Amino acid sequence: MKRELVTIGFAPTKRDVFNHPEVHEAARAIRAKLPAWLSDSVRIVDIDDVTPTGLLENEAGALAAIDKFRREKVDGLFTPHCNFGCESGVALVAAQLKVPLLLWGPRDGDPSGGGNPAVALAGRTRDSQCGLFATGKALRRMNVPFTYIPNGTLESGGIERGFKAFTAVCAAVKAFRETKVLQISSRPDAFWTVMCNEGELLERFGVRVFPVTLIDLVESMKTLRRDKGGTVADKADAIRAAFSLHGIGDESVLQMAAYCLAVGELAEQNRCNVVATTCWRAFRIATGIAACGMNGFIGETGLPVVCETDIHGAISVRLMQAAAMSDEPSFFADVTVRHPFNDNAELLWHCGNFPPCLAEEGVVRSLKCSESRGTPSPGKSYFNIRKGDVTVCRFDGDHGEYSLLMGEGKSVDGPKTVGTYCWFEVKDWIAWEEKLVAGPYIHHVAGSFGRLAPILHEACKYLGVVPDPVEPDAAWIREFWRGRAV
C-alpha cells in the first residue's frame, strides 16, 4: 500500500529590527535538522530561493512565499520564529493558503551571555517567544487555526516529535478534504443508523459522494471477465495465495477477482478514493459472492472499502488511514459484545472485511462459503488480527452537528469467534459505551494500529469537526502537544 505524499511549506521568519547574526544561525540549525525528521512520504518546500535572506520578514516575502507554496500545492506550513518574527507575514501566508499551520520558535539564550561580554553587550538578540505571542494574536485576527509547540530548544525533542505529529495531522486534513466516496447501491432498509446528508457533507466539508448501481458493478465485472480474462485470472491467483479456501470453487474465485478489479476501476474512473458498498442479499444474488473478504483484500491496495453503504464509516476509515501515515491499511469494524472475562474489553468484529495483512502471525486466513437467508455466500474470511496498540474513530453527525469519536486501546487475547475480529481493551469501557449509545455515533468504527488520538484530535481543529475523545482525554492530549505526555 502506497502512502500519499504530504508537502510542508517551510517559512522561517524574522523581525527586521533584530539583525543579530544569531537569527541566521537559528535558521541554519533548523534547516539542518529537518531532513532527519522527514519520512519518505513527507517533503519540504523552502522559501530560501524566493526571499533575499531565505526568511519571511515582510509583505513582499509573504507574497513570494504564497506564490511558491500555491505552485507546489503545500498541505501544511511550518513557520519557526528564528527571532521575534514577522507576525503580519505569517498571518497573510496562512490566511491565503488555508492549510494547517505549525507555530514554534527556538528558545532564547541567556541575555547576560553567561559571562560573555560580547553577548551581554548585544542584549537580547532574538526574543522569539515574545514574537510567538504576537503571531498568535495576528492569526486569531485572521481567523486562522494553528498548532502550537511550546518554545524550546532543537535538542529537547519536543519540536521533533511535534513536527512529526503535525505532518500526520496534515495528511489527515488533506485526506478528509479530498474525500470522494464511491457509493455502490443503497443502504439496507433496516439500517437507519447509516443514513447521511449527502448535500450537507458537500456544503460543509467538500466531501463528495459518487453513486453507482449494482447493475453498474455487475456489468463491469462481466466486461472484465470477457475482455481481461488474464488479468482476472492473475487476481484470482493472488486471492488463492492470500487465503486458505474452504468450499469455494474456481468460478466463485474468478467472480471475487472480477469484483476486486471492478471496484478499483469504478473508483479510478470516477476519481474516488474510498468505497461504501452494499453487501446484503441483493449484492449476493447479483454477483454470486459475498463482498466481505474481498473488501478487506481491496483495502490492502490503499483503497478502503466499507460495507453496508456507510458513508460516514467510509470517511472515518479514510481519515484514520491518512492519520496513521503507515504502509498498512486501516480496518472497519462493528462494536459488538463485551469480553466474557474482561470487563474493559470489547469485540471489534465484522463478517470478514479486515485486510488480511493485519492477521496475527501464524493464524490461518480462511475464506469460506456460508449461507445467509438461503443464499450461498462464498467469500467471508475468518481470522483475528495481531496484538498491539489500536486507535479507533467514528466521524458522524445529526441535526447539522458533526463530531469525531476517538480513542486508544490495545488488541488482546480473547475467545475465538467467526469472521474477522480483535478483542479491544481500554481503561474504562463504560465511558466508551455511554458515548456510543448517546451518539451521534453508531456501532461502526474505523480502526488502525498505533496511538493516533492526538493526531485525530488536532485535525478536527482544521476541519470544523468537534473532537470527542474518550481515552486519552482532552487534558492528556493537550499535554501531548505541550511535549509532556508520553
- Order of strands, widest sheet: 11-12-17-16-15-18
Radius of gyration equals: 25 Å
Secondary structure: helix percent: 40-55%
CATH architecture call of the largest domain? Alpha-Beta Barrel
DSSP strand (E) fraction? 15-25%
Number of helices: 16
- Please name the CATH topology of the largest domain: L-fucose Isomerase, Chain A, domain 3
- The total count of strands amounts to 19
Mean pLDDT: 93
CATH class of the largest domain: Alpha Beta
Instruction: Pick out the low-confidence regions.
Output: none
- Global morphology: elongated
Largest sheet: 6 strands, antiparallel, barrel
Q: What is the total domain count?
A: 2
Intertermini distance = 29 Å
Assign the structural class, choosing from mainly alpha, mainly beta, alpha/beta, alpha+beta, or little secondary structure. Answer: alpha/beta
Please give a structural write-up.
By secondary structure, the protein is an alpha/beta fold. Helix content is 40%, strand content 23%. It is built from 16 helices and 19 strands. The protein has helices at residues 22-37, 59-72, 87-97, 117-122, 128-141, 158-177, 198-205, 214-227, 229-242, 250-269, 281-287, 292-299, 311-324, 429-438, 453-463, 474-481; strands spanning 6-10, 42-46, 76-80, 101-104, 147-148, 180-184, 208-212, 244-246, 274-277, 305-306, 331-338, 345-350, 366-372, 375-384, 388-398, 401-412, 420-425, 444-449, 466-469. The strands form three sheets. It has a six-stranded antiparallel beta barrel with strand order 11-12-17-16-15-18. Strands 2-1-3-4-5 form a five-stranded parallel β-sheet. Helix 6 (158-177) runs antiparallel to helix 13 and helix 8 crosses helix 10. The radius of gyration is 25 Å and the shape is elongated. The two termini are 29 Å apart. The mean pLDDT is 93.
